[in-house]
Amino acid sequence: RSPLFTVSRVRHILLWMIALYLTTKTKTPAYSHSNLYHYGTFPEGFHWGVSSSAYQVEGGWNADGKGPSVWDTFTQKPGNIPNNDNGDVACDSYNKIDADLYMLRALKVKTYRFSLSWSRIFPNGYKSSHNQKGVDYYDRLIDGLIANNIAPMVTLYHWDLPQALQDISGWDNLEMINIFNEYCDFCYATFGDRVKFWITFNEPQTIAWSGYGLGQIPPNVKQPRDAPYRVAHNLLKAHAQVYHTYDEKYRASQGGLVSISLNAEWAEPLDINVPREVVAADRALQFQLGWFAHPIFKNGDYPDAMKWQVGNKSELQGLPNSRLPSFTDEDKAFIQGTADVFCINTYTTKVVRHVTSRLNIESYETDQDVEKDNADGSENTAVNEQKAVAWGLRRLLNWLKEEYGDPEIYITENGVATGTAITVDDTDRIFFLKTYVDEALKAHNLDGVRVKGYIASSLMDSFEWLKGNTIGYGLHYVNFKLSSRPRTPKRSAHLYFDIMRNNGFPLPTEEEMLYGHFPEGFIWSTATAAYQVSAFGTNLLILSLRISIVSKH
Ligand SMILES: *[C@@H]1O[C@H](CO)[C@@H](O)[C@H](O)[C@H]1NC(C)=O
Questions:
Q1: The pLDDT value given to residue 24
Q2: Nearest 5°: phi and psi at 27?
Q3: How many angstroms does the Cα of residue 492 sit away from the middle of ligand 1?
Q4: DSSP conformation class of 142
Q5: Hey, what's the signal peptide range on this chain (predicted)?
Q6: How far is the CA of 304 from the centre of ligand 1 (A)?
Q7: Ligand 1 atom 3 nearest Cα
Q8: Domains of the chain
């Protein structure tokens, strides 16, 4: 063994010890029944990956003919983002394909999820504005991935709407369906010989609610009473349209998959013994996830809970129609079944309780009659509303299985933010990854949920939307102070490499047989004597000591 090997092992041990310390110092959560660590592996061929999105990493905001997107417009206005950060340069991925490929190759990921910047390909959103240099960039990136045996997972729309299309009201305009279809059709035709996994929209719920309801993210439309419902209606039709385009024109020759990345926080009822709270938690999930998943994966229509809530409220508010639009039978048939697999983005869990909202506030939010809080005893992260609650992932995955008829599931985003004080020593992310991936493994191995892939968010620290560069989700640290934007693997990148290589967390007994070098009675007695209190902690300690023994051979 080289000295380097030993050094890296020692580092591992230290990290495990820190993780152990973190586990024992945390007060026992209210949901401690979920704390046991599960050893096991995913099947061969499990789709491990990392993610990014165009606006967050590319930079080159006006390079080679790219048109502005709504995010360029928004972030370039002083005062909108902390420190007036913006994505003008971001990670400079537009000029750093090789640096990005290097990281992906070093991680040995099987899949890279990234998005296409619509206005780089069609600067004003329309096909007539075609920009070959933008197309060339994606051709080079995709070819580089293929050459390295990394499957591209391509998001067609990750929030960066061409500004010119927002100028005609963006997703509140029905015409967008055809304009989006023309763009997607072009992408399938141009890249589909190599891209076999398409994601139409990233988090349509965030687009509709945060973009057109709260007005927090671009296009910053603040019409919470009905714009989100109209926008979601159009997004669903646009999604269905481009699914059918793939089906009719490309599937036979290209043989890829088409889906949509929906976002959900697991909603844990405040009290599972109170039916009203259980119903409220289910309603919260229906409003957030079911809004899109119910039409696509069930019957082409919105969940009953949504139709009833918005319908009843609208009636009591004296409106002639429900603020939630309805689909014709033709629409329903067109939308139902338009995803080949289920893609979910998830970051945290909320505890949900029933409230009776005031009728004089007309909003998607008050329509739900729920209130959401952070879960007791969950770990803080650099984002206040994103506590780390690993057990919620297993419940969410089980809920998806039950609700949507046992679909194949890809976790297309999951990760944790750290602040700028953390560069490469990201212990929090190691803890997050270990515990979250283990909950996905439990869902797969113990509950029979058909989890097919896990995409860690994200490849590297990026422009984090409304938070600018004040936080990062990366497995790689990017120094935004230097114009060369150097990328450095964090500790979590090493851990994730191991998880992917092992396909999970192999059983300690398998490992024991593999190496067969445990000195009799050496570790086990020490570990159990000192740390009997926490099964989870014990396992961590055993694993750390095991690694130390292995490294001696
Ligand atoms: C109101 O809610 C009930 C179920 O609680 C439902 O049967 C009814 O159709 C709803 N009314 C409207 C106008 O949506």
A1: 43
A2: -70, 150
A3: 49
A4: H
A5: 1-26
A6: 9
A7: 308
A8: 1-39+506-553 (no CATH), 40-505 (3.20.20.80)
